[in-house]
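Q: What structure does this chain adopt?
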Amino acid sequence: MLYIWSNKDNKAELYYHLGDVNGFTHTNFEENNEEHMSFIKAADSKYVSGPFLKPLNTVDEAKADAKVATAADKKDLQKEIDQENAVHNTDGYKFYHFNFYDHALKRAKEINSSDKATVSEVKEATRRLQMKAKLAYLTVDEYAAYSNSRNSMPEKY
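A:
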C-alpha cells in the first residue's frame, strides 16, 4: 500500500501496488505490468481476507515526495545503479539470467537521468532495484525455494 499525491486534486489517496506476477495472474496483465507499476485505488476495492497491509508512506510523505527530485534525492538510486557489474557477476544472475533485474535497472537509469522524475519515482525505482538485486545474491537452492513460494502466496510488498 502506498499513498500517492495528486497535484490536480491536492490530496493523497491510498493505493494497492500490484507487484510481480505470482502465478495467479493472467498473461495479459503480466505483459501490461512489465514495469510493475500498476496500482488500484484502495477506496475502489473491497477487503475480502488476509492480513491488513500497512502503507509504506504517510500522507505528508506522499505530498513531499511529489516534488521533482534533485541530485541529492537521487544519491541512493545512483548507488544501486553503480552495483550493476557486481550483480551481473553473481552466480545467481549468471545462472538464472535475471531479466527482471535488467528491467528494473533500465527503468532506474531512465528515472535517474530524468530532470522531471519525482522523489516518489526515485524512491520506488531504488526500492525495486534493491529488491531485484537481492535475488541475484541467493544461492540456486534459495532462489528455487523463493520461486516456488511465489506460486503459492502473494508478494509482501
